[in-house]
Design brief:
This protein is of the alpha/beta class and 224 residues long. The protein has helices at residues 22-28, 35-52, 59-71, 80-88, 100-109, 122-131, 154-164, 178-187, 215-222, and strands at residues 7-10, 17-18, 95-96, 113-118, 140-143, 171-175, 190-194, 210-212. The chain has 2 domains: 7-17 and 95-222, 3-Layer(aba) Sandwich (Rossmann fold), CATH 3.40.50.1000; 22-93, DNA polymerase, domain 1, CATH 1.10.150. It has 9 helices and 8 strands.
């Protein structure tokens, strides 16, 4: 049985937030809804590439620029600037996955320290958690913008450990992304993969310490 962590770190985009409404933002501007997934994957790819090259850039700028590239040859129902603004504004309107509030409260009630660590901004995380009524359950909200490197680079997790005043081995990273799970595991954290859709975990990544289908199951696993 894995040791109970002192701090539980949550990824934000897709792990806590339900990003499916972003597809409707593309439909709103006259584009194809399925491009939402391609756009998000593209901006993550470029963030990872910059980190690998020793550079970094804010999530919002990459999202903006990746949209302009993707939509450049699309026949939209408004000008490009307005289209980009509408899609990017969707981040501030996202809601929590239904399983998140109760699971987070259960974890906090067990005495665990809860924080977020996102490749996006703390403003988006704050809006999401405040609207969902659980901002007070989190000790602090962290962004890789202060780390100088995007997850899954080791520096991002080390930054979180410093910010929380704890050791990497005393932290658990909770994420819906296998690449985040792998990065945290390689940095020395225990991990919990949130697999709501019953997907297959890629064999080339370090396996998660826990695999759960919901935040309630996560609380049962690590707060017992």
């Amino acid at each position: 049985m894995a040791q109970q962590p002192a701090v539980v770190i949550f990824d934000v985009n897709e792990t806590l937030s339900d990003m499916s409404p972003m597809a409707s933002r593309f439909a709103d501007i006259g584009s194809q809804p399925h491009l939402a997934m391609l756009w998000f994957a593209s901006l993550l790819r470029d963030g990872f590439a910059l980190t690998a090259a020793g550079s970094t850039e804010a999530f919002a700028r990459l999202g903006d620029e990746a949209l302009r590239v993707l939509l450049a040859d699309q026949r939209l129902d408004r000008d490009l600037d307005a289209a980009v603004e509408h899609v990017m504004g969707g981040f501030m309107a996202l809601s929590l996955h239904p399983d998140v509030p109760d699971g987070v409260r259960d974890l906090r009630e067990s005495g665990l320290r809860l924080v977020t660590l996102s490749n996006g901004s703390t403003k988006v995380a704050d809006e999401l958690l405040t609207a969902g009524g659980i901002r007070d359950q989190f000790e602090t909200l962290l962004s890789v913008e202060e780390a100088g490197a995007w997850k899954p680079a080791r520096e991002a997790y080390e930054y979180a450990a410093r910010a929380c005043g704890t050791e990497l081995a005393d932290m658990t990273l909770v994420a819906a992304h296998p690449w985040d799970i792998d990065g945290a595991a390689r940095a020395g954290l225990s991990t919990a993969w949130v697999n709501r859709a019953g997907a297959r975990y890629p064999g080339y990544f370090t396996p998660p310490t826990h695999t759960v289908a919901s935040m309630q199951e996560l609380a049962e696993r690590i707060a017992a």
